[in-house]
Amino acid sequence: MNELTITKLFPSCKQKEFSESLKERTYVGIDFGTSTTVVSIAYLSKELGIIESQAIDLNQKLFDGAIHRSYKIPTMLAYVNNQLLVGEGANKLKLKLKKDKNFWHSFKMELGEDIGCKYPQSELNNEKFKLLNPKDASKLFFRYLKVQIEKYVNLNHLSREIEYTVSIPASFEANQRKDLIESLHENGMMLDKPSLIDEPNAAFLSYISDNTLKSNIHISEDIPTNILIFDFGAGTCDISILEIGYNFKGFYSKNLSISRFDELGGRNIDKLIAIDILFPQFIKQNNVEESFFKMKVINKIIIPRLETVAELLKIQACKELSLMNWSSKNNEVMNLTDTVQVHHEVSFKTKHGTFSLSIPTLTFAEFIKITDSFTSKNKLAEKRLNDEEKFTSIYTPVNSSLLKADLDAEDIDYLLFVGGSCKNPIIRDSLQHYFPETEMLLPHDLQAHVSSGAAIQSLIYNGYGRNIVEPITSEPIITIIKDGSEEVGEVLIPSGAEIPTAEITISGLFPSNKVQEQIEIPICVGNKNKLVHNIMIKNVDNKPFSLDSEVTLTIKINEDKLIMVRAEVDGLTIDAEPLNPFSNSDMSFKDKQRFKAESEYNKECARNFGVETKDALVKLYKRYDELGLSLKAAESLEQLYDKFGYSSLNRVALHYSDAGLRDKAIYLYQKAYEENKAPHLAFNLACQYHYNDNKKYEHWIEQCLECDSNYSLGIFSKGKVLISNGEIEKGKLLIKRAFDKWKDEYENNYLSVHISWLSSAAAKLGEYDFVEEIKGREDEDLNLEQFFDANNLLTTHSINTVKGY
């Protein structure tokens, strides 16, 4: 067995002429993390003749003007008293500032999304600094990094010719990479050359370059070795599987698979602690019902503030469980009722007063249960806050990678832990049980490890023009075409293709109908719900294309995983610019319509200097309502009611009821009823108790009829109550009274209630022919605009593909 070192995979680093040329430049690696960024430099050790690296301390200004020096730079920005704070200075103020207004974090995870002005209330919007979206935040963050790196280089008398490599999740797609590269380029970093490395590959380079490790990787010359890199950071869970082997050229390495992009990281654990543990503590301490707070306040203010202390509790719990040598084997004999606490009061000022959580607390049992949600073998994600928040298991990306590599768990020889979230002993324990035959590898510093590998990549690539591990595609690249009346996905580049690809030329594509004046070629990643390009070709003079007009597609993926596409037809050539999807996740057309509406709303707010207008909010609310997004509709309408007096509490409560938030609906109905004792409010209150409290249901039906004895919904419901209590004839008379009124309205093309009430009354009276008569009447379909017109798609008789790999 051979011990794997970087010189085995890259013998050239020992060549004298190579080592001399390295002195002319400084090689920098940046691990741009969701929560923490680390910068390292790499160099060739004269004494040992090997590549070494070190994380470098950078200056981070605090609010009081003091300078904090550390290699860990929180990926955060803050704007206070007309000064921009980056890193630790921003981190120390995170409990005092308002997210997306004067404090920004996790912006890395939102790169590549086209949602307009993401931060319409941003206080940072002037000639010197502009911060209205995640890309702006990234630009400012890298501007700071560049200044500090150059200061370090000058102070340490290093070459001022700096070569950068930035590590990012392997699963980042073209749109996310494009935004990041543009942020770097606008700061004069890494122009005109490949600049990115997948984080798992950087971790692998760092590990095999560290000559101080006790656990080394050993490679057989006869059987390839499979290494799974488990990179679990604050925002992503990135899996890469490498094959290391030996052939006639010597040792080789290749990527077998990488996981698809999932928003899964340590911050998701923080959020679940905030929702399931701390929010109930907050409600109890303040002696209020959950329904007391608007959902928007809970989602946008309370939960994000609680997440901050949830992270502190999680870190403390991980440290103490590690010191106790916790494992699933000794779980039952340990005292898991013990708690961890943080003495950071979380408080919120509202028009109703100040609410706080004085001593946030987490038991070990609670923490283990929370983490179990992320180690479940169940494929279904857990959901919270009316399905707005999704929590995915780490085994979703793990199994995705194994499947793509055509491997089973027992085929993995080594598992390398990377990322700050791997400090969680419950996560490591779960993986050790899932891979019982696999040797586990743990670096010295889980957080600095990736930046070290990025610096080594910078040295090897920029110094010698080599990649030790060639990156691959995580998902297939497909186009959507017509097959008869069906829309189908045609694979252009499969998952696992080595990058960069050579040009791939695809012909045999034709217009799908004889009146087609425009051709659309949607290019998607993974499936048709994730559009990254839509090539549109319009014929000259607006004439239809001939059915014999052949379309040729040329596609390639460059070194930074950007998709380059060109289409040619009848002498017309279109080079496509990548589209940024509204979200980095798969989306239904309803989701796309939601994000489109939110994008337009954000842009309108930005035009009004960050202040929302009534018209913009009304438009957004109406779109939510049309799309059947009840919770979003409720939140936006409640905001309209409070701020502009638009609509009514009754309407807000109806939306909350439709969203399944019964307590919130009851609270608002009662508030409205106290102000105005109207029959419809009493009736809506009755409906909240219909299936769980007959006494209250009947009480509110009586209240409804006391307000208006002719209120048809109250009459119908009273009839049903009488029938259920055995007074059948009396009940039927009341139902008939309501039915006659509704039927008359229906026949005069006006119906004051939803048609389902008329149908229900008819069925109660045995009027089944009438039920059938009205059965066909349906609500109008939503006008769900797609992001391509299916009538403009191409079709094929047989695709001819010339692939360059």
TrEMBL record:
Keywords (A to Z) from UniProt: ATP-binding, Nucleotide-binding, Stress response
Molecular functions (GO terms): ATP binding; ATP-dependent protein folding chaperone
Keyword Isomerase: no
ATP-binding keyword on record: yes
Pfam families: HSP70 (PF00012)
Top-rank lineage group of the source organism: Bacteria
Official protein name in the record: Heat shock protein 70
Signal peptide: none
Species for this entry: Psychromonas ingrahamii (strain DSM 17664 / CCUG 51855 / 37)
InterPro entries in the record: ATPase_NBD (IPR043129), Hsp_70_fam (IPR013126)
